[in-house]
Specification:
Chain A: It is a lipid-anchor. The complex is a heterodimer of chains A (about 210) and B (about 475). Chain A is about 30% helix and about 25% strand. By secondary structure, chain A is α/β, with parallel strands linked by helices. Chain B is mostly helical. The longest helix of chain B is centred in the first third of the chain and has 51 residues, at about 110-160. Classes of the chains: A alpha/beta (about 210), B mainly alpha (about 475).
């Protein structure tokens, strides 16, 4: 979902998904606050953060939903995929288990997310490459077979985190531009009038 | 003063950062900018730190305290001006003179002396006020310590020896209980409040703990084999894991991530092993539920207050309560009913808060999920959580609704000020500053008069709306 409001030219929702403990929350904190917290808390349900970026002359706000990774939570977390403009599926390069789950995560997002939502596959914990269990070639092959972009990151070393998000956002912009040939000329499709409420705000949604 | 200067530096750094990024903008399609929200947040929290540090200093040193107020003011409004005015007491008079704007007439000597006298008076007044504040804080501290001693005596000498259903419901006991249990009696009272209805014995705990350890070993050996030989998992070995026992593996991820700032649950820390034991044994005890994230918080709070076996009995029986069963079995139908019911309760208690949250798109599932799964132990510091649990054990499920409404009442100013979905969601997931204070929280909870009848009504109405009979 790409939302346009008065303050920002665009607001997009991104979701971070993947097994528990692969470093989703730290990718998020590195991207939005440039922080790595070795003492981060377990995510229960979903956590959020935002970051504003500039695309040409447009100001875009990314709203990132960091979901809990435990399989047991899937019944709840798949409700969070709705309206996401893009997804990062994360695994830990030192955990074959977490890589084996990617197929299931992909299925989930394709089933519960909006159709054709851009996805980037992220192999995190690149700093622990001496403990690597997932060879780059295996991950690349999987990504290729499923038409995904693949990137390896280290939230700890702040390596490639920026690029991973940029990859995804570029894909979103590209797919969005195909629908609306020129972003700058795009006009709101719907207008929600919330006159019943005192805190009125213009808002339009483009799906 | 150095603290203040560093806060200025941070402001400057923030500006620089966003500027430098701004310059890079045109170079590529997607160029980054520092999040305005995040950088502002960082600056504000730094100022708060400065304020709290200087507050602490003012208690210790009378001399330093006169500058405390200035820093407080400065960190909120105009830091630079405060630095030049109050850096050095010897040059105060000169500095005041030098502050005269260009083009304005010089002050007469009489005027100058008058201003200096006024200024000295102000400083003196500020010193006195700080001294009074220090004395009153000390008195309050003494008072609190005395109160704790009296409470402990009351519990040890009167309440515990006379423990009965009738007695604990007396006004006197209920009032004492509301103030939180003294640490010395907490274990005893919690055990009395969560009776061992499941009849878990120490032997049974030992058996499940043993199972857990063996199964985790099997799991690890299977997966290391898989990695080395790059073959599929030998299924016959994995078949020994029943139900959701495969969740045993994920426990270790979460132990160190439970109350991480306390550091006692880190690997090698004093509580790592006991917490692992509790959660592993529970997973084998209830393989139909297994380990579910959030459980580590409940187990951690119990192991911090009770012996390992007692903590296990308490955990098993606590997780058997209907509301926690709904959540930990991830019964989404009942959970949705619960969230909708709570939305209705909120609407009847605080229609304006409900309307605002609804407008921003925050329904109760966004905050209640965390709050119920961890019984409020994720958003608050441990001393606040202990007091909440003390009263939860007294009042049961009703206290969950009461606390949740109390929290929303407490943060209502923020709710009306913040307009962004994410800002509000973040507010609910971590209570900071004055909101992480048990006195303030309990003051707000005490204002919520709610009965189980009201809760049932809200739930029934939610049930009708969902059009399904789930209870």
């Amino acid at each position: 979902m790409v939302t346009i409001d008065e303050e920002f030219d665009m607001v997009i929702k991104l979701v971070l998904i993947g097994d528990t403990g692969v470093g989703k929350s730290n990718l998020l904190s590195r991207y939005t606050r440039d922080e790595f917290n070795s003492e981060s808390k377990t995510t229960i349900g979903v956590d959020f953060a935002t970051r504003t970026i500039q695309i040409g002359k447009k100001k875009m706000k990314t709203q990132i939903w960091d979901t809990a990774g435990q399989e047991r939570y899937r019944a709840m977390t798949n409700a969070y995929y709705r309206g996401a403009a893009g997804a990062l599926i994360v695994f830990d390069i030192c955990s074959l288990n977490s890589f084996d789950s990617i197929g299931r995560w992909l299925q989930e997002i394709r089933e519960y997310g909006d159709p054709g939502v851009p996805i980037v596959l992220v192999g995190n914990k690149f700093d622990l490459k001496h403990l690597r269990q997932v060879p780059i070639s295996t991950a690349e092959l999987f990504a290729h077979e499923n038409s995904l972009k693949y990137i390896e990151t280290s939230a700890l070393l702040n390596s490639n985190v920026e690029s991973a998000f940029q990859f995804l956002i570029t894909e979103i912009i590209n797919s969005f531009s195909q629908v609306h040939k020129d972003i700058q000329e795009c006009t709101p499709l719907t207008f929600e009038d919330r006159s019943d409420l005192s805190f009125r705000r213009k808002c339009c949604v483009i799906n | 003063m150095s603290a203040l200067e560093s806060s200025n530096e941070i402001f400057a750094e923030g500006d620089q950062l966003s500027n430098s990024n701004f310059q890079n903008e045109s170079s590529s399609l997607v160029t980054t900018d520092t999040s305005s929200h995040s950088s502002l947040g960082a600056s504000i929290s730094t100022c708060d730190d400065v304020t709290s540090t200087t507050r602490k200093l003012s208690i210790r040193s009378e001399e330093l305290s006169s500058s405390t107020d200035n820093i407080k003011l400065a960190s909120k409004s105009k830091p630079k001006r405060s630095i030049s005015l109050f850096t050095n007491s010897d040059t105060q008079g000169q500095l005041i003179l030098h502050q005269r704007p260009k083009g304005t007439p010089e002050r007469s000597q009489k005027e100058q002396k008058k201003r200096l006298r006024e200024y000295e008076k102000m400083v003196e007044g500020s010193r006195k006020r700080d001294l009074e504040r220090t004395v009153s804080m000390r008195e309050k501290q003494d008072h609190r310590e005395q109160e704790q001693e009296d409470l402990q005596k009351l519990w040890l000498e009167q309440i515990l020896p006379q423990w009965s259903d009738k007695f604990i419901h007396s006004k006197r006991v209920q009032e004492a209980w509301w103030r939180g249990l003294p640490p010395k009696v907490r274990a005893e009272v919690w055990k009395l409040c969560v009776p061992n209805e499941l009849n878990v014995t120490e032997d049974l705990y030992g058996i499940f703990l043993d199972h857990a350890k063996k199964k985790l070993q099997i799991h690890d050996s299977v997966f290391s084999q898989k990695v080395e030989s790059e073959t599929d998992v030998p299924l016959h070995l994995l078949q020994t894991l029943k139900g959701r026992e495969d969740t045993l593996e994920s426990i270790r991820f979460d132990i160190a991530r439970t109350f991480p700032t306390l550091a006692i649950f880190n690997e090698g820390g004093p509580f790592y092993e006991p917490l692992h034991n509790l959660l592993g044994a529970y997973t084998c005890f209830r393989p139909d539920i297994g380990y579910v994230q959030g459980m580590s918080y409940l187990a951690a709070l119990l192991i911090l207050n009770l012996d390992e076996y007692d903590a296990f009995v308490c955990l098993a029986n606590l997780l058997n309560k209907p509301i926690l069963q709904t959540f930990y079995r991830v019964d989404d139908r009942r959970m949705n009913l619960f969230f909708l019911g709570f939305d209705k309760l909120l609407h009847s208690f605080f229609p304006k808060i409900a309307e605002k949250l609804n407008y921003v798109g925050i329904t109760s599932n966004f905050y209640m999920l965390d709050w119920v799964f961890t019984l409020f132990s994720k958003p608050f510091d441990i001393e606040v959580v202990c007091r909440l649990w003390d009263v939860f054990f007294r009042d049961g499920e009703l206290f969950i609704y009461r606390t949740a409404l109390g929290i929303l009442r407490m943060v209502q100013n923020e709710i009306f000020t913040l307009n962004e979905f994410v800002d509000l969601a973040q507010l609910f997931s971590k209570m900071t500053g004055k909101y992480n204070n048990h006195e303030f929280l309990f003051e707000n909870i005490s204002k919520i008069n709610i009965t189980m009848k009201q809760v049932d009504q809200a739930m029934r109405s939610a049930e009708l709306e969902l059009g399904k009979t789930v209870f």
